[in-house]
Amino acid sequence: MREFLGIILGCLLTIAVVYVHDSMVTSTVANGDTAGASRQIVNWNVAASEWNSVKENVHTTWLKLKANNG
Fold first, then answer.
1. What's the number of CA atoms in the CB half-sphere (13 Å) around residue 50?
2. CA 46 → CA 12, 29, 32, 43, 53, distances in Å?
3. Residue 61 lies in a domain
């Protein structure tokens, strides 16, 4: 159980560190070619879109399971 908790905590910590890093760097769009050395690690718009897709799929699956058991 501690192993599973450690894995989850490690994933959350990694995401938090990447988010903090990305919030501190400047955008290449805002500063042109000079900001190329310090780029964001994650495209957060795509990540949000994918997360919403995952949530919708989980919700749909849950409704199907609920309908089959009820």
1. 6
2. 18, 17, 22, 6, 11
3. yes
With respect to residue 35, please indicate whether it lies within any of the assigned structural domains.
Answer: no
The residue segments making up the domain with residue 56 are: 2-26+40-69
- From CA 63, how far away is CA 18, in angstroms rounded? 34
What secondary structure letter does DSSP report for 66? H
Per-residue model confidence as pLDDT tens digits over 16-60: 999 988 888 865 555 555 555 667 888 888 999 999 999 999 999
User: What does pTM read for this prediction?
Assistant: 0.60
Q: List the Cα angle 42/23/36 in 5-degree steps.
A: 65
State the residue for tokens 């042109």.
32
